[in-house]
């Protein structure tokens, strides 16, 4: 009892105790400490300097991308003649250049192909040979007639100059018709069938449309034929929607160039008749403006009976199932024809022998029991329709033409005429050195005693090694000597 009383008395006394302090009582909860932000030091990054002269491309593409022709010797001082249809006889067996208009047009068409050593010269050059004169008489002069009766295929070994002859034909046509000619050129025919373009089925035409390929091809054709397309008015009214804007072009008021510039349905993912309308307009104007259709690497289209594209049920798509492929097939067979014009095909030896092409040109008898993978008899029969496609064999250079080409290479600095030093020359130069035992630079060994004799030796050697093939002849002289 006593203990509890004492405890209660102590508790009562404790309630009346007060602490004395000069500061005010703090009742609020203390806030949490602020997070300290990390102070980072800015690292000094050195600016990377891009190395010049480097490229990820392979040699064939790099020489075009890096524009090595800007480093070549200027040709203006040589007085080279321009390729012209009226002066063809006087410039025979001579190296010529293209006039500014023809050169610009051919570049836009893609007529100057890679691996043709264009980087050796400041501008494209060409040699007029018997092939040029023969193509003028057998093909260009017949362009005033129907294109179905003027179909030609260039044949020849690799490096013979088939693609160069196509470019010469286009330049001669521009000269002959004073620019009033339409040039439709396919520089890489394998792009039509190799599966590199998107495609979809157009139910209105029952063909497969290739928007990406067609749009790019139309863009090149429009740029190359701008002047002549502006002279060709539309023969009928046409309306279309482009970029959510409706266009209505009137006949005789607007031109084909206006149609190709405003119409974007060539790359449109939907039913469109723009390409068919363009071809129809060219047909209606072909009586005044001849049309040349040239296809390089033509055998790439027909070396296989099927393309790299497939139907929705995985059936392979043929060349005729494509809208652009059907356009080519009709031209080759002659079922699609222009009032004035021609069709020029060129094979490529890089793709090997094509039995379909040889059967279509009637160079060999097709075997009916041969599988379709080796010879497409259906397409071969199309080539024989309406008189068939004629052949043109591209010949190599003669000895005199090779001499003229070698002289030109010497003038522009491509050919290095030097005499290979013998051991006797080494010894005599060592003995005549200023101090015995000192080395002499390589340039001092290279001395040509008789320049003309050495030139003849180079001509004999390279012409024999190349057998007059222009491609090999130019390659040997530009890389070896």
TrEMBL record:
Record has Ribosomal protein as a keyword: yes
Keywords: Mitochondrion, Ribonucleoprotein, Ribosomal protein, Transit peptide
Gene Ontology molecular-function annotations: structural constituent of ribosome
Highest taxon of the lineage: Eukaryota
GO CC list: mitochondrial small ribosomal subunit
A Pfam match: DAP3
Subcellular location: Mitochondrion
Entry's Gene Ontology BP terms: mitochondrial translation
InterPro entries tied to this protein: Ribosomal_mS29, Ribosomal_mS29_fun
Predominant localisation class: mitochondrion
Family stated for the protein in its record: Belongs to the mitochondrion-specific ribosomal protein mS29 family.
Protein name: Small ribosomal subunit protein mS29
Species per Swiss-Prot/TrEMBL record: Metschnikowia pulcherrima
Lineage: Eukaryota, Fungi, Dikarya, Ascomycota, Saccharomycotina
């Amino acid at each position: 009892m006593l203990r509890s009383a004492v405890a209660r008395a102590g508790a009562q006394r404790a309630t009346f105790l007060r602490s004395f302090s000069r500061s005010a009582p703090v009742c609020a909860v203390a806030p949490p400490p602020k997070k300290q932000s990390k102070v980072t030091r800015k690292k000094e990054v050195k600016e990377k300097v891009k190395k010049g002269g480097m490229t990820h491309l392979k040699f064939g593409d790099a020489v075009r991308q890096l524009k090595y022709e800007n480093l070549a010797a200027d040709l203006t001082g040589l007085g080279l003649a321009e390729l012209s249809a009226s002066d063809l006889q006087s410039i025979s067996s001579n190296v010529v250049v293209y006039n500014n208009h023809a050169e610009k047009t051919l570049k836009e068409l893609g007529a100057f192909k890679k691996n043709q050593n264009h980087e050796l010269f400041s501008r494209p050059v060409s040699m007029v040979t018997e092939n040029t004169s023969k193509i003028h008489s057998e093909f260009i002069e017949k362009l005033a007639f129907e294109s179905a009766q003027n179909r030609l295929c260039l044949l020849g070994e690799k490096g013979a100059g088939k693609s160069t002859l196509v470019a010469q034909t286009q330049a001669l046509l521009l000269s002959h018709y004073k620019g009033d000619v339409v040039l439709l050129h396919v520089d890489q025919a394998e792009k039509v069938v190799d599966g590199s373009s998107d495609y979809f089925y157009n139910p209105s035409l029952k063909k497969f449309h290739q928007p990406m390929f067609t749009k790019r091809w139309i863009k090149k054709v429009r740029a190359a034929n701008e002047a002549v397309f502006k002279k060709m008015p539309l023969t009928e009214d046409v309306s279309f929607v482009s970029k959510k804007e409706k266009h209505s072009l009137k006949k005789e008021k607007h031109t084909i160039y206006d149609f190709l510039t405003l119409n974007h349905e060539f790359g449109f993912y939907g039913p469109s008749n723009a390409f068919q309308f363009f071809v129809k307009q060219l047909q209606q104007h072909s009586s005044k403006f001849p049309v040349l259709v040239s296809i390089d690497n033509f055998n790439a289209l027909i070396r296989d009976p099927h393309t790299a594209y497939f139907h929705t049920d995985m059936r392979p798509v043929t060349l005729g199932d494509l809208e652009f492929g059907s356009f080519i097939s009709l031209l080759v067979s002659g079922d699609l024809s222009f009032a004035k014009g021609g069709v020029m095909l060129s094979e490529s030896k890089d793709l090997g022998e094509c039995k379909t092409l040889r059967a279509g040109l009637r160079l060999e008898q097709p075997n009916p029991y041969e599988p379709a993978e080796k010879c497409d008899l259906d397409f071969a029969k199309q080539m024989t329709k309406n008189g068939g496609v004629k052949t043109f064999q591209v010949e190599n250079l003669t000895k005199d033409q090779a001499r003229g080409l070698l002289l030109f290479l010497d003038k522009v600095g491509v050919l290095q005429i030097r005499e290979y030093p013998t051991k006797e020359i080494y010894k005599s130069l060592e003995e005549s050195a200023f101090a015995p035992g000192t080395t002499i630079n390589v340039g001092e060994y290279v001395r040509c005693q008789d320049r003309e004799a050495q030139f003849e030796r180079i001509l004999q050697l390279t012409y024999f090694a190349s057998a007059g093939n222009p491609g090999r002849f130019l390659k040997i002289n530009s890389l070896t000597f």
